[in-house]
Amino acid sequence: MLLQKGAVFNEMIESYDGATGRLTRRLTVAGEYNHAPTYHYNTAFTQDSRHLVFTTARAGKSAIVSANLETGDIRVLAVADGIGAYYCGTNWGPYSAGSLGGGFCGNHICLAPASNWIVAVIGKRFMAVHHDTLEERVLIDDIGKEYVYGGPGCTSDGKAGVVTYAPEHPDVVAGRWPIKRDYWQALIEEYGGRPTVFVQADIESGEVQEVFREERAGCNHVQPNPVNPDIWLIDRDWPTTEEKRNIARVWVLNVRTKELTEIRPLNEYRFATHSTWNRTGERIYYHGPAKEGGQFVGVADISGRVLWEKVFRGGSVGHVSAHTQHEAILTDGLCSTNLISVMYYEEADAAGAPRIEILGSHNTDWQCMHWQYTHPHCQMSPDGKWVYYNRGSRGRSDVYVVKVAD
After folding, report:
1. CATH superfamily of 7-403
2. Distance (Å, whole) CA 351 – CA 222
3. Residue pLDDT, tens place only, 233-291
């Protein structure tokens, strides 16, 4: 099908989850990829929990779309003439440049439920589209060939989009093809690290403000607090092995005072692969590879005090998201490879093991595509009734929702 702004189509297929018997709705069946936002808390469902935003690529174009979870109707909100995401000379799966240097993909969009604006990175552009009116606004037209964006976020009041940018691969900028140097190796040789700029763009006025700058540490994940627009959860990706071993990756940034608070795991390996806010914005969920093997999963408060941490010796790849009704971690892995589950860490036993509830099975083929199109990246709807996930199979990906409460 041809993607046209404002068009509506429906591909929904209902079934029942093989692990739990819960109602499952497959929202897409066609396209090079269908890709919902990443695991960051509260960035994909509208506040009324009726719609899920995601991206799709079909017939050489890509789009931001919104699915009605009851009817399955999918409305096209914005269309680009490219597909996929390019990143610093590496293969990130299906890609055509189009006129903007790429297309829409799930990791590079973020919905602000407070305003229904969706911000997106597409090639060198940072833009916004309104979920209801379909109005589009350009926030940064062209970041320049010397830079690349990280993933975007939105402030809790829905008024601003936030994003980072950092140097493009120096050999790409210089036109030295084929690219032989690793991206990080090239940055260390040229800059001593990955200097990164954090910006905030007011969606109404268009004003873009630099709020923070790193000289050596990179950041692709920026997550404003779900309550306080001035508090952001960020990554600090360090250039040397020694720094990675001794300094935490996850930090809390106050963009007004520039104060940084380290979220330091108890595990001797300090590298938290993924992190996100809990539902109140008072705690941070995180996980990473444990020194003992497997994965450590933990919870810290906003001051950096670790409240709970547990090593899962058989832990696998996965992500942490937040339950919207309870103090609990929603995950697409960590304690399994194919299940969507909840860790109720406040109900941990004497050994620290949490109560685990299985919500469903995503059964994704993690390796069937390049990059993260096949990563489930689960999120729960604000009313706690739905959980979405991406599923990869046979070289493409689709978006599903499973009903987890009435």
Report:
1. YVTN repeat-like/Quinoprotein amine dehydrogenase (2.130.10.10)
2. 33
3. 999 999 988 888 888 999 999 999 999 999 999 999 989 999 999 999 999 999 999 99
